[in-house]
Fold this protein.
Amino acid sequence: MAIDILDDFRNPEKCRRLVIKIGSALLVDGAGQVRVEWLRTVVNEVFTALERGQEVVVVSSGAIAIGAKQLGFTHGGKRTLAEAQASASVGQISLASTWSSLLTERRLVAAQLLLTLDDFEHRRRYLNISATLRRLLKSGVVPVVNENDTISTGEIRFGDNDRLAARVAQACDADGVILLTDVDGLYDRHPDDPEAERLEEVRGVTDEIHAMADGGSGSGLGSGGMTAKLLAAEIAERAGIALAIMNGQHEMPIGRALAGQAGTLFLPKREDSGRRAWIGGRMRFNGALTVDDGCVEALQSGKSVLATGILKVEGEFERGDILPVYDENRRMIAKGVVEYDWSDVVAIKGHSSEEHEDILGHTPRSAVIHRDHLVLL
Ligand SMILES: Nc1ncnc2c1ncn2[C@@H]1O[C@H](COP(=O)(O)OP(=O)(O)O)[C@@H](O)[C@H]1O
Ligand SMILES: N[C@@H](CCC(=O)OP(=O)(O)O)C(=O)O
């Protein structure tokens, strides 16, 4: 695996935001107990990453494996959906409290987010997830995400934290995702086959790549097997985010995995992320914003669209719509996802951020279009 790319994961200049997903097979032992000592080494690595200026979001599985043991549902894969969901609701309490106490040992604050894949399909929910994650990271908090198992259903493929990790990465505009698991990466066939060979780098998750994966979990503790990880790699690829599948069966698995270079790295084909391409490619709009020269300059240096720079608001758009941004000469300079409904933007346009709460009567967003959801043309 190209060492320079691995370096990117460790380099806070290149990888400022990292999502680390930990599978059940790593986190929980055969007796349904959290491997606390091992997890403490992971938390130490998270601490080190934060110290060097990176931001880390954790996606942690394990609730079902922990809860099933507590409830005596020990018949593995034959659990009913209701048994798995009951197990998750019991296990999640232990899981969250373990994360919280281990992070507290390093004086870090944990946040719990329980999400379903479906939440990411709804624009407003997506924007709320995105804003919450960004705000937590800004405060130095470590968000710990798991699937909201009780309300997940079979149709949206219950039990898929791999895809959830990729969606979380997309929502918080992360630079990289590491899926820690109990194998060294993707093999060209099931790793139990002695002929199996590991792939170091994949550009494009093709049908041929999908055919290599087996859907079952090796340990019986996880749920999606390698198939779920490839679906996650596809989401990351479309969003322009690098994703690595790495073995986490050691102490300090992140550092070891990176230094040992074992793993499979999935690289996006395009430089422009799928989401940015989706924003930039939009042709039909429900409205538009015109901004002053100061705002144009700010956007060009990577800032967000703030209400104070808005001169004109057109159309009756909703929060989550994509809008074009014009300069004073009616030149379209950017497109982005708007954080407010049209009437709110009309009310706060030209006003500085301190005045927004009084005008709106609720806590304002950090921007009208956040730079993470803005594409300059
Ligand atoms: N082509 C493949 N390469 C690597 N692992 C594979 C492959 N096909 C199936 N697997 C299985 O996928 C398992 C990892 O998935 P899973 O058990 O769901 O892990 P986790 O709980 O970490 O999400 C491995 O232990 C392995 O048995
Ligand atoms: N939400 C479930 C995990 C589902 C899942 O994707 O598990 P895994 O394949 O071990 O990452 C739980 O906490 O048990």
